[in-house]
Amino acid sequence: MQINWTAFSIFIIFFLFVAVLGFVAARWRRGDLSHLEEWGLAGRRFGTLITWFLVGGDLYTAYTFIAVPGLMYGKGALGFYAVPYTTVVYPIFLLILPRFWSVARSKGYVTASDFVQGRYGDRLLSFAVALTGIVATIPYIALQLTGMQAVITAMGIPGSWPLIIAFIILALFAYTSGLRAPAMIAIVKDLMIYITIIVAVILIPIKLGGFGPIFHASAAALAKHHPPGSIALSPKLYATYGTLALGSALALFLYPHAVTGVFSASSRRVVKRNMALLPAYSFALGIIALLGYMALAAGVHTKSTSEAVPLLFLKEFPTWFAGFGFAAIGIGALVPAAIMSIASANLFTRNIYKAFFAPNASHENEARMAKIVSLIIILLALVFILGFPQQYAISMQQVGGILILQTLPTVVFGLFTRWFHRRGLFLGWLVGIVLGVLMWASTGYQSTSYTVGGVTAYAGIWALMVNIVIAVVFSAIFRAMGLSNGEDETSPSDYRVDVEASA
């Protein structure tokens, strides 16, 4: 395959531009980067606009840009579940995240596990939440490479060296600038993606004769797939579709990188505004999903669904603009990967290293350890994606939602009540994790859906239901036995804290 030098040149220009921005970001809203709160949360000083770009860039990744239309390309309507879940998630978390931000600001919490430790006085439960977050996030970082791999392959670049160079740059600017780097780059990345989407939704339908012919052609193409797909959801998939959307919505803001983005906001009001404004990304996601149907209608043929969108761009866009779109996808991999590595490093440093090995670590030692761990996390992600088959990596990402959902009772319920016993929550988490993984394993690691009583639904929801039942039952038993429920260092006023929002 020949190298497409025009597209590759445009890709390199924009990639180098954001790399420079990543290093310059260390001087943006300057703070003492030898302190973890400054390196890992940018001093909690981001206002509404920056938080909107940061959290949006954090949640809507290169993998989303590739995988959602890829699923539409391969299976049809089932892939559209991402749109309702990113619609319902914001009203749900509008009730939760302002309260979470307030207690974190009041007590200086950097991670969700910091809150768990403060709320229950239990290092084991805090460790369980931290470990779950790290394990669920590492393959997620690796999967940002899927998007970058797809565009590199589409441009005809041989080997893995561009991927390695890109993630070396990522590791260095994350180490140097902390959360400020992805925040600054997210602005560029999101603007590029919006430009690409707007051009795509106007230009491609015009070239293909409109959306009517696109839907007709994609329906005919999906019917020939093995197994057949459809642009209309089959009734037997209703429960799977609904529970996958609900489970994904409940899981989204439990991921460490999402928590990090929220905690970096300057006020409770900034968090509320973002829950109201972020659905704009859901509108964009709906258009992104339709790119899968456009690829089918355009006659794109590929065995790898991840390549559907890049091949569509090459076929329907001028070469220079295809390069621009590829750069948007590539940069869309850097932003979330950087935030994920920082969030995972925060978790390890605060809730494993400091909690168990260096309880008297200074602020400087914390920041130094987090920076080193961020490099290690990115290296592990790179090894993961290069050393394992891509299909296996994607399966690992799918189970991330099952894992992170099991922290919901501890984190979310804990924000509103102390009725649950810490040991009951731990047992619920443990059984939920084991059960979810076993359900996934029973499908040969091919599906996150599981059938119970003739109903096929998302395994994460089944596991969460059992998790909650166990947490309730054993909390009641342990409370009746009078077992200690740990010491709560928070007070009701901590959950109502607000400060003036900065611009």
Strand order, main sheet: write it out. Answer: 1-2
**How many strands, which pairing sense, and closed or not: the largest β-sheet?**
2 strands, antiparallel
Assign a percent range to the helix content: over 70%
Q: What gross morphology would you assign?
A: globular
Structural class: mainly alpha
Would you count the extended β strands for me?
Answer: 2
The SSE string, one letter per element, is: HHHHHHHHHHHHHHHHHHHHHEEH
Structural domains: how many: 1
Assess the beta-strand content as a share of residues. Answer: under 5%
> Architecture, according to CATH?
Up-down Bundle
Poorly predicted ranges: none
Alpha carbon gyration radius: 22 Å
SSE diagram, text form:
Layout: H1 5-24, H2 36-41, H3 48-59, H4 62-75, H5 82-94, H6 97-107, H7 112-120, H8 123-154, H9 161-177, H10 180-208, H11 211-223, H12 238-252, H13 256-263, H14 268-277, H15 279-297, H16 308-316, H17 319-357, H18 363-387, H19 390-405, H20 408-416, H21 422-442, E1 449-452, E2 455-458, H22 459-481
Antiparallel strand pairs: 1-2
Helix pairs in contact: 1-9, 1-10, 1-17, 3-10, 3-13, 3-14, 3-17, 4-8, 4-15, 4-17, 5-12, 5-14, 5-15, 6-14, 7-8, 7-20, 8-17, 8-18, 8-19, 9-17, 9-18, 10-15, 10-17, 11-15, 12-19, 13-17, 15-16, 16-17, 17-18, 19-22, 21-22
Overall description:
The chain is an all-alpha fold and 503 residues long. It has a single domain (5-395), classed as Up-down Bundle (Sodium/glucose cotransporter), CATH 1.20.1730. It is built from 22 helices and 2 strands. The chain has helices at residues 5-24, 36-41, 48-59, 62-75, 82-94, 97-107, 112-120, 123-154, 161-177, 180-208, 211-223, 238-252, 256-263, 268-277, 279-297, 308-316, 319-357, 363-387, 390-405, 408-416, 422-442, 459-481; strands at residues 449-452, 455-458. The protein has a two-stranded antiparallel sheet with strand order 1-2. Helix 7 runs antiparallel to helix 8 (123-154). The longest helix is centred in the C-terminal third of the chain and has 39 residues, at 319-357. The model has no long low-confidence stretch (mean pLDDT 89).
